[in-house]
Amino acid sequence: MKHAEQMLRDDALAGKVIVVTGGGSGLGKSMTSYFLKLGARVAITSRNLKKLETTAQELMQETGGDCYAVACDVRNIDEVEAMHIQVLENYGAVDVLVNNAAGNFIAPTERLSSNAFDTILDIVLKGTKNCTLTFGKHWIKTKQKKTNVLNVVTTYAFTGSGYVVPSACAKAGVLAMTRSLAVEWAKYGMRFNAVAPGPFPTKGAWDRLLPAPIKRKFDPKKRIPIGRVGEHQELSNLVAYIISDFGAYLNGEVITIDGGEWLKGAGQFNNLEQVKKTMWDLLELAIRRKNS
Ligand code: HXC
Ligand code: NAP
Fold first, then answer.
1. Which CATH class is domain 17-291?
2. Which of 81, 109, 119, 197 has its CA 20 to 30 A from that of 1?
3. Which-ligand-closest: CA of 167?
4. Is the full-model pTM beyond 0.85?
């Protein structure tokens, strides 16, 4: 068995309708592909309808599943409500919302205009709020049970990070929303969970967070104890489990999948791995001498 094999049984998501924001590219596309293979019908949504339609066609051919493309800028509540209605007209009901759409780029915070900061907050935090409120209110009104929301955050949602401050603020807000609604809306039959991926190569993230000169200097693999970046299927396996009925007792959780990256940064002495054996021999001697 290999770590990037498909994990769940074939019908694990049969009968479910899932909406994936930002489903036309990157991790959203990979997750959608796996949800389709597991028997779900999936609506993918983002700003670029042409890209979504191409992706939907490609994934339907690849999986034999049913994928529906709907244009929507998650920053705009009117567009989110219209997208929701369009999906309901097409599929009748929705069981799962995956808030995956995001915007991000690296920049010293003092170089950001107010609009640049707002742009990221609006896509990530307001966009997640717009979708969650629209879908959640509908589920409450129609008394639909066994629904759930999966939010894609990142590890700096809880550690914070310089140079991506708007994204860190927005993802922290999304994590707070996840934990808050996991409690408040459980009585309506909804579950709320989050995943916090470490580096998983995608064009969207790599172009904006690891442009070539940065990548040469800060190879992400070197920061990860496991020594490699994530494979998309590994994240898809985790998310499919959480949103499936197998995850029915999982609520209010954020699961990190980063090969130990954030902990390596957090442990004060973790960089001592650079110390060679001969140096350790000398250090040990020196420390033992002090002890005696
Ligand atoms: C400073 C910048 C900038 C930059 C844009 N702006 N790029 N400021 N440095 N590099 C400013 C603009 O000048 C403008 O402010 C404001 O931001 C909005 O820019 P627009 O181009 O008008 O916005 P828009 O067309 O809506 O595009 C949004 C975007 C873009 C976020 C800027 O990159 C995008 O569409 N991204 C979507 C996909 C994405 O980002 N994927 C990566 C997710 S990765 P002014 O004041 O001039 O009007 C991720 C990983 C997390 O989240 C964790 C990794 C480990
Ligand atoms: P990506 O391919 O750039 O995905 C972002 C998606 O969001 C795109 O499909 C984009 O589509 C959509 N989007 C952006 N603005 C939108 C808006 N206003 N309305 C609707 N859709 C919008 O990047 P990714 O790496 O797959 O990221 C997916 C998720 O994983 C994000 O939440 C990201 O923060 C998270 N994440 C990624 C990594 C990583 O290493 N890749 C690590 C941690 C967390 P359009 O441009 O067509 O709108």
1. alpha beta
2. 197
3. 1
4. yes
